[in-house]
């Protein structure tokens, strides 16, 4: 933590605390074991709702969120739903944009770059012949996702682009979406 | 659409329209080409916000959502954020639970199974040594995600479990999370 005096807060990122956190985890790697959780309840038809609040991390249950975050999902009218929320697959668009954006704000702050504006547009292409069971050659999920960043700050275009690239290299959501992970689905019988 | 009179609405699913939609797509497969979109703007630090509203599908721009859906993301206090929303990676938990739940409600309705209750709990394990850049052997994303369903309805435990299994086989989110997809990240220079 000797370096903290030379790294002020920037971009809304508390850089001294960010580096102190890194130092703390270096000294006690088990603090980096996290378990995130959500609870979902079916409402009607394709409409359902998730609760996100507690998680395990830094060696303990987190209790810093005073209220749960609630998210509805549904299918749109053209897919016989009622538009009570986005489709589930659209939340992947939010997740990748949010992960890359959070990361690049941290990385910019650590590198001493002040950001003026960051925005992104995400698209996902999907051929529903897969999930509708109408063509076994078509996959169920997105064939491609694209994220386009607009970024302004007090650095060269090359340095700004390098922030996005480093964020991509360190993104948890990018890793899961591009490499996949193990997903276990069970039915818990009462 | 000859079968519609024998398949009433069930579980809040308009089964006749669901089958009519399948028939329409069988006759014109290009209707199944969808493109979903989100827009994200950085706010401060790790806090950012996505807008989800329009998409392309069924051969046209969808205009059925009167207002955009807005979602914030942030890091929690222990990760030097301000809890303005869940972490981006937690939205993957919502996405998988929502996708499997929407699918099984449709599949149950199509099979004539009346559901009484569906709930699920999702967990995701992640070792942050990856994204913190402290151990090159540790991946950035979840090492494992687990979804546990509780399901009650007017069918045998085996039939209810088979609904979950069929939903998993047809889930867009499950496909992306387990198999990964192509994610292109670009910086758009003004």
Question: How are the elements arranged and paired?
Answer:
The structure is a homodimer of 190-residue chains.
Chain A: H1 15-27, E1 33-44, E2 47-52, E3 55-57, E4 60-61, E5 69-73, H2 90-111, E6 115-127, E7 144-153, H3 157-169, H4 172-179, E8 182-187
In words, what does this structure look like?
Two copies of one chain form a homodimer. In chain A, helix 2 packs across helix 3 (157-169). The longest helix of chain A has 22 residues, at 90-111. In chain A, strand 1 (33-44) and strand 2 form a beta hairpin. With 190 residues, chain A is an alpha+beta fold. Chain A starts with 14 loop residues before the first helix and ends with a strand. The first copy, chain A, has helices at 15-27, 90-111, 157-169, 172-179, and strands at residues 33-44, 47-52, 55-57, 60-61, 69-73, 115-127, 144-153, 182-187. The first copy, chain A, is globular and about 55 Å long. In chain A, the strands form two sheets. Chain A has a five-stranded antiparallel β-sheet with strand order 4-3-1-2-5, with no helix packed on it. The first copy, chain A, has a two-stranded antiparallel ribbon with strand order 6-7. The interface between A and B is large, with 130 and 130 residues. Strand 8 of chain A pairs parallel with strand 7 (144-153) of chain B, so a sheet runs across the interface.
